[in-house]
Amino acid sequence: MLLLYHILTLFITSTTNMSNQQFLLETIKIINGIPQHLEFHNQRLNYTRQHFNSQSNTIDLKQFIVAPSTNGIYKCRVIYSNTIEDIQYSSYTDRQFKTFQTVIANDINYQFKYLNRDALNQLQAGARGADDILIIKNGFITDTSIANLAFYDDKKWITPTTPLLEGTTRARLLKQKKIIAAPIRLENIKKYSKMALMNALLGFYIIKQPIINKTG
Questions:
Q1: Claim to verify: residue 139 and residue 36 sit in the same structural domain
Q2: What is the DSSP string of 56-83?
Q3: Are residues 186 and 111 in the same domain?
Q4: Vertex 24 angle, CA 20 and 27, to 5°
Q5: Which CATH number is 186's domain given?
Q6: What angle do CA 116, 118, 121 make, to 5 degrees?
Q7: How far is 81 from 95, CA to CA, in rounded Å?
């Protein structure tokens, strides 16, 4: 049974008129009581706050996150605007991925990790029974509905230069030079022998011989 903890709800009075769509989200993995890779979550959260609200002060998520247990794996959702709005915790179990349906979305914009995922959910409705979708924008591979991507050419892992959202795991692996970035068009996907999903919860999830069903 999913355990859900709401231990912090800070609603503020502010002159900033934030609609539901403009609330933002960080998703953090907690393993045995330790939040993972907070440096990269802090960087994205504070960059986003600066972009939308011109906030010069910084937030350190370490001061807000209280792990629900020192044992097990948990998903932490930090909802924020110019300050922290809510923090939610739930137990986490890895999902399995093998099949993907390509969807064309030339007009989609998901540069920031919004709480409102309506645009992505609408695309996900076109999965046609696949485990997830592979989003194509202007002919280039971007992301799945939940993760950044990387492809293996038998020598190196390459992540597309055209992600919808620049994820924290992608940023970390680029910084560590474990992956490199390059444009990847849909028609060139057959050159790669493996695919990997990247996000804060999955980590670097390698899929050997993924099944990719192309739209049309």
A1: no
A2: -S---GGGT---S-SSSEEEEEEEESSS
A3: yes
A4: 130
A5: 3.20.10.10
A6: 125
A7: 29
- Is this structure's pTM higher than 0.85? yes
Are residue 8 and residue 35 in the same domain, yes or no?
yes
Residue 1 tokens read as 């049974």
- On whether the CB atoms of residues 160 and 181 are closer than 8 A, the answer is yes
Contact 127, 31 (CB under 8 A): no
Q: Mean pLDDT, consecutive 10-residue segments, the chain of 216 residues? A: 35 36 91 98 96 87 96 97 96 95 96 95 94 97 98 97 98 98 96 97 97 86
Same domain, yes or no: 25 and 127: no
Residues 123 and 57 in one domain: no
Report phi then psi at 92, rounded to 5.
Answer: -130, 135
Question: Do 135 and 191 share a domain, yes or no?
Answer: yes
Total domains, the chain? 2
Residue 215: predicted pLDDT: 79
